[in-house]
Amino acid sequence: MGSVGRCLVGAMLLLAATPGRTGVYEDMLHAINIDDERTVGVLLKKGVDVNSVAPNGDTLLMLAVRHGKPEMVKTVLDARPRVNSRNAYGETALMLAAFNGRIEVVRQLLDQGAEINHPGWTPLVYASVHNRIDVARLLLKQGAQINAQATNGTTALMMAAREGHLQLTLLLLEHGADLNLRNDDGHSALALAKAHERDDIAQLLARAGAVE
What we know:
The chain is mainly α. It contains 13 helices and no strands. It has 2 domains: about 100 residues, Serine Threonine Protein Phosphatase 5, Tetratricopeptide repeat (Alpha Horseshoe), CATH 1.25.40; about 100 residues, Serine Threonine Protein Phosphatase 5, Tetratricopeptide repeat (Alpha Horseshoe), CATH 1.25.40.
């Protein structure tokens, strides 16, 4: 079962504890799962709490972001959810959208006041995991702090270097990423590139003046 399926099942288990509402919430979760934004909108107007959460803290907005199309996300956003809520892993809806490369959803969330910069893992670092370069470019344009460090000291540049994303590494360097920050293990972006045999990136960083 995928992460979306686990979230939906978990949400059903939690919401089943609310007498008289189980069927309605099951309808909501099923509608999100099949991208039926019309039914989602109807159920929200009938009083389903848009800020309902699954055991892992995922809200309906997060489920829509994970699984839904921009139209689905808009339907949930129209109900005015708390866009900066975090799940049990400290993730926000914007982080999930950035991780999955859903640039239109990223724009929607930013328009509704989603936070780009906050302590811990950030949307920019999440975008760097899977080389979401268009998302990274948008986040930087909107003021993402390029040298923000996650809870373990990881920066977007470190992530891009470790994962071998050359074009993203170039983008981050163009925006002034600090070459020589280190994570909690003492590793720089150059050290991570070398450790993971990202030779092209290691050479690029070394030419730019990075040190291990």
